[in-house]
Write a structure and sequence with these properties.
Blueprint lengths: L3 E6 L2 H4 L9 E5 L2 E5 L1 H5 L8 H7 L3 E4 L2 H15 L6 E4 L7 E6 L4 H4 L2 H14 L4 E6 L2 H6 L13 H8 L11 H10 L4 H10 L2 H8 L1 H11 L24 E11 L6 H17 L2 E11 L5 E12 L3 H12 L7 E8 L3 E2 L9 H25 L6 E4 L9 E4 L21 E8 L1 E3 L2 E3 L4 E3 L4 E7 L2 E12 L4 E7 L4 E7 L2
Parallel strand pairs: 2-4
Antiparallel strand pairs: 1-6, 1-7, 2-3, 5-6, 8-11, 9-10, 9-11, 9-12, 13-14, 15-22, 16-17, 18-20, 19-20, 20-21, 21-22
Helix pairs in contact: 10-11, 11-12, 13-14, 14-15
InterPro entries: DNA/RNA_pol_sf, SulA_CellDiv_inhibitor
Protein name: Nucleotidyltransferase
Keywords: DNA damage
Length: 498
């Protein structure tokens, strides 16, 4: 029998925020109270209240819920519990704020000296973090989680029947992920899980499935550990999820003498990057982001972030990008320690190869050369200086293109109604005014209007646009895209044809 431990973190929504506990703290989401401290609860604040009522009843400190921080909080707890077992799953809910972790421990009972020893070690880990938890154990993950709501004493020699006996005493309202089914169960007279178990034993689970749906029935089968079709112990067990901690790489070098010379940093930078390259290749990883930390004995720190458009597993490009940034940097202190950190990695992606080896080599080199050139330009000029254009549907032509990073796929699907109308090779972002002289329109020379007009009009972002566009030819035979603003009766140049 598999054995599952569940730990419900009572203060997780608040602890995840990383702030000191206030005597009366209330966490809100969508202007509703979702978590209250004991002090705030004593003052009259309750879960489910609107924020105005809670403020009226108590002098509370309101904090907005942050789901991203909650996920990071669970990750930290899982990393701490990883010393016990790799079989760790997260418990989260979109319905309530209850968060927790479930561990499958049957494979490590002998290693740690029994279930009770494992529970004590896990509880000590939570106690070190000053987190309040409720504990449950059972033969299935779902049952163990539900039993965190039961005030049960365990001998740690329980059988499956013992766990089901404890389950049967729990109220059906704990099935909070199925609010409609819970409401229907209570109307039918099912108030505890034992009522559902008795119904399954007396008739069949098919009746439950017909009345309450497939998803709810599947959950009951997983919780009780029975087979959907045969109404008996499940014949096939679902593979246990394996938690894998985030992988981080960090290494450093300490100089014999403090330095602020870029030339003296060349060899240490190369050496540290080669260690990173070995780590990435051995673990079949690649990365687009590394970070350097320069520090002295007085704990002064300076950080340099290096980005590559294409994931890399070799050190050469990161070396060039790092040295470019170091060349243009003035250090405010002499560096004693140089640290390299890589926190964001991804599995090495398989890439297709062309069977024509010469062509494959030539194509690969061209792509690599372009990515290296682009990365070096961005390192010297800044991320905003290197970009590409993507089409965006808009009434105003100057708003129909947007700047996007080189690695982002661009939209080149122009609507059919624009494929047969003249459009310039170069579009001027801000239309330039045209002089109206006695001899005609003048912009760096007199203009003769040709093809047109093409009328573009409509409302866009609260502004009415009404223009007549023409293709004009200048005296030097340059073709321009010009328009007359029908509101102001003025002329503008908007583009130049190739």
């Amino acid at each position: 029998m598999k054995l599952w431990f569940s730990f419900r973190l009572i203060d997780a929504p608040f602890a995840a925020l990383g702030i000191n506990t206030s005597p009366s703290s209330v966490i809100i989401e969508r202007h509703r109270v979702i978590w209250v401290s004991p002090e705030a609860e004593a003052a009259g604040a309750e879960i489910g209240m609107d924020i105005t009522t809670a403020q009226t009843l108590s002098d509370c400190e309101f904090v907005e819920r942050d789901r991203a921080l909650e996920e990071e909080f669970l990750q930290r707890q899982a990393e701490a519990l990883y010393v016990i077992t790799p079989h760790i799953t997260f418990i989260t809910s979109t319905t309530v704020t209850h968060l927790g972790l479930t561990l499958e421990v049957s494979t490590c009972l002998q290693l740690f000296g029994g279930a009770k020893a494992i529970q004590e070690q896990a509880l000590q880990i939570f106690a070190n973090g000053q987190h309040r938890v409720e504990f449950g154990m059972a033969h299935t993950a779902e049952a163990a989680w539900l039993l965190t709501y039961a005030d049960a004493e365990y001998s740690f020699h329980e059988s499956k029947d013992d766990f089901i006996h404890l389950l049967n005493q729990l109220p059906v309202e704990l099935l909070y992920e199925f609010p409609k089914q819970v409401e229907a169960l209570e109307k039918t007279g099912f108030f505890i899980l034992g009522d559902i178990a008795h119904q399954i034993e007396r008739q069949s689970i098919a009746g439950i499935r017909k009345r309450f749906g497939q998803a709810f029935t599947d959950y009951l089968c997983r919780m009780f550990g029975i087979d959907l079709d045969f109404q008996q112990g499940s014949l096939f067990s679902v593979p246990v999820a394996t938690y894998k901690p985030a992988e981080h790489f960090s290494t450093f070098v300490q100089f014999e003498y403090p330095t602020s010379s870029t030339a003296l940093m060349e060899w240490p930078v190369e050496n540290l990057l080669q260690k990173l390259s070995d780590y990435l290749r051995k673990n079949q990883l690649e990365t687009q982001h590394i970070e350097w930390t320069l520090s002295d004995i007085y704990k002064t720190h300076e950080y340099i972030k290096v980005f590559a458009d294409i994931p890399q597993s070799h050190w050469e490009l990161f070396y060039d990008l790092t040295m470019i940034q170091l060349e243009h940097r003035q250090f405010s202190f002499e560096v004693d320690i140089l640290t390299l950190t890589c926190e964001h990695t991804a599995r090495l992606q398989s890439r297709g190869q062309v069977l024509n080896f010469d062509l494959a080599r030539r194509s690969r080199n061209l792509n690599q050369d372009f990515s290296i050139t682009a990365a070096k330009l961005k390192a010297r000029l800044g991320d905003d200086a290197v970009y590409k254009l993507s089409y965006k549907r808009a009434i105003a032509p100057e708003l129909s293109q947007e700047k996007i990073p080189l690695a982002t796929p661009c939209n080149q699907e122009v609507p059919e109604e624009l494929t047969d109308v003249p459009r310039p090779t170069w579009l001027i972002p801000d239309p330039v005014p045209i002089e109206e002289r006695k001899k005609g329109l003048y912009w760096r020379g007199y203009l003769n209007l040709g093809t047109g007009p093409e009328r573009i009009h409509g409302d866009w972002l609260g502004t009415t646009i009404a223009r007549d566009y023409f293709v004009a030819t200048r005296h030097d035979h340059v073709r321009l895209w010009v328009f007359k603003d029908l509101k102001t009766k003025t002329w503008f140049v908007h583009g130049i044809f190739g």
